[in-house]
Amino acid sequence: METKNVNNITVEVMEEEVKPKEVAEQPKTAVFNPKNYLNLKLDDTKGETHREIKIRVLPIDKDSNSPFKRFYAHNLTVDKTISESGHKSYICLEKTDDIDHDQFGCDCPCCQINRAEYKLFKEATDSVEKEIHKKRSVQYLPSEYCAMRVIERGHEEDGPKFLKFAVRSDGKDLMNMIKNLYKIRRDESINDALEEYGVDDASKLPEEFEPTNILDLYTGKDLQINVDAVYDKQGNKTNKTSLSIIDCGKEKPLTRDENLFNQWVNDEKIWTDVFAVKPYDYIRLLVEGKVPYFNKKENKWVEWIPKDQLDKDKVYEEDEANEEIKKAEEKAKQAPQVQTTNDDDDIPF
């Protein structure tokens, strides 16, 4: 079985646009398995303020040599039944290439709102109205994210795990921190070689010289992610955390077990199996402030209505029908009568 590796060339060119490629048919339903995810949270029940998590970076999937998958997602306010925090991110169907567009669609409700609101912002003359459209347009802008696949040291029995995170403009995200650490170690090895061979240019180094690559599956290193609690100005612990990363230990292969090596690197799971893509109609219901529910009879996503509300609607409909029946019965019982009073006596009390 062919193995894959994260090599120097791939790391150097990972900023380039990745061309869309054919994707395998994705499962209709994704079963949640916590072993598929790398947990980067602190355990508040244990009073944790610091955690150290050792990982080995894998290619993002069995057909790639890239350690990262960059994609776009929208951060939406959702019902508490969907997410306890009231917020959740959803993969952008329009700006993310490596998904099954035949299944999920190519249009994105969030991007459509973003463009429509921006158009209204440009056309508006009233300053208040202009600001409203501007904020709403920004609200539905997609954010850049990154997905990674790793082996967690100490939990190798779980196999490959995935994690995703927002790509930050200040570079303080795992992708940029790993890239920077990679470049530091690469440059250090080149400078050491220049000194060793007594030359002043890397092009003059022996052909057999290979710069250090901490991401190499055979000669790379494990990385340690440090998770630390963040405190406010009053010294109170917040629900936020900060991440930092270092390389640790000696250079070594991913594993010395060749069968296990191939099993991990060539695992069939892809990032969208773990971070599920939602179709157009699902996201459309979310932006309308509704809770999506898949109606099997109609074979489509519809608004979910709580059972107690359904019962109330049913009772209301029954009461309304009974009232109509009563009116019809009363009308049938009444025979034509001779008027015996004048208009002045016909008073409502």
Describe this structure in words.
The protein has two domains: 8-15 and 32-290, Replication Fork Single-Stranded DNA Binding Protein (Alpha-Beta Complex); 296-330. Strands 1, 2, 3, 4, 5, 6 and 7 form a seven-stranded antiparallel sheet that branches. Helix 3 packs antiparallel against helix 4 (127-139). It is α+β, with helices and mostly antiparallel strands and 349 residues long. The chain is 31% helix and 20% strand. It has nine helices and nine strands. The N and C termini lie far apart (95 Å). The chain is globular, with a radius of gyration of 30 Å.
What does the largest sheet look like? 7 strands, antiparallel
Cα distance spanning the termini: 95 Å
**Class of the largest domain in CATH?**
Alpha Beta
At CATH level 2, the architecture of the largest domain is Alpha-Beta Complex
Global shape: globular
Beta-strand level of the residues, as a percent range? 15-25%
Number of separate structural domains: 2
| Count of runs of 4 or more consecutive helical residues | 9
Bin the helical content: 25-40%
Topology order in helix (H) and strand (E) letters: HEEEHHHEEHEEHHHEEH
Oligomeric status: single chain
CATH topology of the largest domain: Replication Fork Single-Stranded DNA Binding Protein
Mean pLDDT: 84
Q: Nearest-angstrom radius of gyration? A: 30 Å
DSSP strand tally: 9
Could you name the key traits of this structure?
349 residues, alpha+beta, Replication Fork Single-Stranded DNA Binding Protein, seven-stranded antiparallel beta sheet, two-stranded antiparallel ribbon, 20% strand, disordered C terminus
